[in-house]
Amino acid sequence: MRYLIKIVMTVACVHILTGCPVMDSDLDKRYPSADITSATLKGNDLCIAIPHPADYRLRMISIYPRGADPKTRWYKDEPDINLTINQGQLCIDPAFYTFEEHRQYVVRTVMWSDKKYKETRFGSRLVMAAFEIGNGHAYRVVLEEREL
Fold this sequence. Notes:
148 residues, alpha+beta, six-stranded mixed sheet, four-stranded antiparallel sheet, 3 helices, elongated
């Protein structure tokens, strides 16, 4: 009996310390790496490029000045204002969020695809952009490791 308990405890400890390989592969599909993209100004709107938009739609958006405390970051689940992806661009009107000149920002968007979910059970996608507004342009800023 003691021998059986030692074997069960050993197997349980190894499993706990190494993790479940099936769960890890599913997590990689469920939460893939972020797509890092660019931002541009089109008139007064800030537009984020959405590569390969297919049937993705916006589920959540987070906009914050770089270095902001996570507790003070602005975000909106299921944005009620009509933010849609048009021709591979998600444009943000100043009525939705106002960006200040000469300040760096990070925009994180979570996209959802019903089609991809039906095909793979994993329909979410993270798209991010970091930029600085100045002189009528949005200049790309490199994201730091901790921001990803």
